[in-house]
Amino acid sequence: MGKYILKRLGYIVVVFLIVSLLMYSLYNLIPSDPARQELEPQRRNMKPDEYEQAYQRLRQQLGLDDPLIVRYLRWIGLWKGLDGRFDGLLEGNFGYSNLYKQNVVDVIKAPMSNTIFINIFSTILSLGITIPLGIYCAVHKGKRFDQATQVVTMLGYSIPIYIIALVFMFLFCIVWRIFPVMGTKTAGATYTSSWDEFVDKLYHITLPVIVMTFGSLGGMTRYVRSAMIDALSMDYVRTARAKGVKEKVVIYSHAWRNALLPVITSILGWFLSIFSGSVIIENTFSLNGMGKLYWQGLNNLDFELVLAIQMFYSVVSLVGSLLIDISYGLVDPRVRVDK
Amino acid sequence: MANNQKKGFFLTRWFRRAFMGSDQEVRDIMQEEQVQTPFKTMAKNFFAKHTVRIGLGGFILVFLFVLIGPRYWVLDLSEQDSTLINLPPSSDFMSVPKEMQGNIVDLAAGKTYGIGLDKNGKLHTWGYTRITEKVNLANIPDEVQAANIVQLAAGEDHCVALDDNGQIYVWGNTRLQQGKFSSDMTKAMKNAAKGESDPSWDIIQIEASNQFSAALSSDGTLYLWGNTNMADIKLRSQYQGNIAKVALTANEYICLMKDGTVAYTGYKDKGSPFAAIPAGLEGKTVVDIAATSGSMAALTSDGEVFVWGSSTAGEKNVPAFSGKPVAIYGGRYHYDALMEDGSVVAWGNNKYHQVDVPGGLSGITKIYTGNFANYALDASGAVHTWGLKGFTLGTDNLGRDLLTRIVNGGRVTMTVGAISVVIATIIGVLLGGLAGYFGGKADLLIMRIAEIVGGLPFIPFAMILSAVIGTRLDPTQRMYLIMVVLGILSWVPTCRLVRAQILAQREMEYVTAAKAMGIKEWQIVFRHILPNVISLLLVSMTLDFATCMLTESTLSYLGFGIPLPTPTWGNLLTGANNSVVIQQYWWQWVFPAAIFGVCTICINMIGDGLRDAVDPKSQER
Hints:
The complex is a heterodimer of chains A (339) and B (621). Chain A has 13 helices and 2 strands, in the order H-H-H-H-E-E-H-H-H-H-H-H-H-H-H. With 339 residues, chain A is mainly alpha-helical. The mean pLDDT of chain A is 82. Chain B contains 15 helices and 21 strands. By secondary structure, chain B is α+β, with helices and mostly antiparallel strands. At the A-B interface, helix 1, helix 6, helix 7, helix 8 and helix 10 of A face helix 8, helix 9, helix 13, helix 14 and helix 15 of B.
């Protein structure tokens, strides 16, 4: 198992480097010239050839004339910077946000905690709902409840999440007036204790979490259901029943453990889509999260910020896939033995 | 005879055999043995399901709607109109109440509404009268209801009425001084209320336009009031007392003088296109004037019409009249001319059919026109209407017809979805085929690439691609970019599917046979194995089509897909996420969301049915 995890870790590092190189080259496609930008205010006070000299000097200082791969390695922190230090992504320097006039690290702190909070919340909620629901539907296949669930889940994965968000907003915020339409905190609120702050935050993110959960119900429930039906039609289930094993044991011990394998695979795809989905949800509900920040950064061409967030998404997806791999290894002994 | 028939029958049979395959007799044996081609079994299974039939029907309906619709609802990307913003679904802009038919005293056509006075002195309003959440023109004030009204005028967001006692009433939106009379007028009205007769307050004409109004007395005195910031509503003193008629554009006005000349009497007469009265009018007697929102027209006594101002919609293309016009009327972008013989000729912009005068109109005595509506009154008092009836699905925040945008947006979304699926399938089949058949290093490499691409968070990555590359592209190129981006990011599942299928098929006997016959390897993959995989591919393509449409619309919703003003089902919903739109302008998000939801649900139903039909094992599920 340890060897297996180590192997996966190595693989993930390689993939991370490839993805970050890809992103960095993409970022370099944008026509921009930081040296000229920096010199622009002083341009009037300089003679043309003086300006040209200063410009060339600055270009060299900033290392703009170095080959792409060197600049990439410098950015990621594997190559000595111009001041002779390693100062890149891996050392914790994520760059400088032009939009917020702050270091990216400081900009993304609060949104990151919000996003992770929301996503973990809705992950727990939707796994907690979909797995029992899928198992129940598989066991009671063809019954009325199953058919109704099929219809609802079909709606859930056919309708884009922002439309679901609009409908839920209409119902919960306008017709019933239970939740606020947008934001992460009550405007102008001052909290007497951190508990109040937490409660207020919880109140504001309840609806987004509900929407995200609803949106991811469809696909997962169907997946669990079909995996479970496959498992229940196996011979060992019939054997177990013939032996007189209790139905509960048959379902949860014999069938479910085998159905778990395909379900875990699908959780990876779903885990990624939930972060994609949070871009939409955060924009729709104006939540101060990574997705909203990403959207703002892209709209304002603040590419250092965007690049940092993109790296965050990549890391999330890689860590997600690592977790899936490990749990796969835990569940399926064959994986451990083979690799 | 009988012989002939038999011969004919034989010939048909022969013909059928030659061109349509085997004979009925032969097929009977097949049926007896219950032999069916796999394709037939699939089709039978497919159509046997309820959900499939519903989905197929629904999808075909939406598809035809989107395919044929753009011919009837032609998209105009530059379209916008400030008078038509945020209108709900309606078709009653010109539906004059029944009790008014035949006994109309006065009528005024406003922005999207009408207001009328019948012989019993009762006021009626129709059409969309709501201006804001609080202000509704249909709420006629009690004092107006009680007064004995004789004349009406309808402006952009306010109504003006005159009673037989010389009092003028204004209601509607009055926050921009639409109801603020000058001191002269208040004084004159006070005197009139006391019963004193005043030659300079014998009002014969009232007019209302965009936030300002005008009243004209029989002695030639003109009164103007309203929002002075918007409109040039001052009057040069040398003209006062000589005015015979007034016509209002959106922000200016023009006067017909008592001596039969036309004059721009306002202060903004330097260099304004409205003040440049055509030279051809000199020496001619003008009998009538009219104005659209941006142009002015004068009718001379010999039946000639002159149009000047900033005409943008063909108001200046005056047609050649067969008869002699006696009066002219102006809408927002069009003119109506009433002929001597009681017929009507109209010209100008025809977007909302405001120039399509109904055939067989005769004996018309009076026309009321405003914005896009026309009401013609004939001698018997019956009203004939033409022009803008309303919008079936309402309008958006720029005054664009939502139905047109939904139809055309559907076309864009479906095209983008279909083409990106084709791109994704081509890449997926090629790479999956290579990986599956050749295995080894090729397989390892391709599957690692697939893992990386599949592992990228989809929406953020598509957003950054669109933002980085898209900035240098025009909207059409950007549409192609979106197709390619979607295709490049979504080939992974297809690739995995093809690879897995080919791995399974590779071991089958027919592949061994093909190999033994010395057929080239790529031919084995793509001509022998692939047809066996095609049915599963079809399923994944159907389901991917829905997914690609969803992704495109999501990107457009976030502003990184197809840019506005090109409509797609996604960007129609951009900006719908605030409580004002959700609650008050519900039609702006309900209709696009509904048709899009129906479409994707139908496609997914078809895809599910197809999968069940193709893979009999899954039917047990």
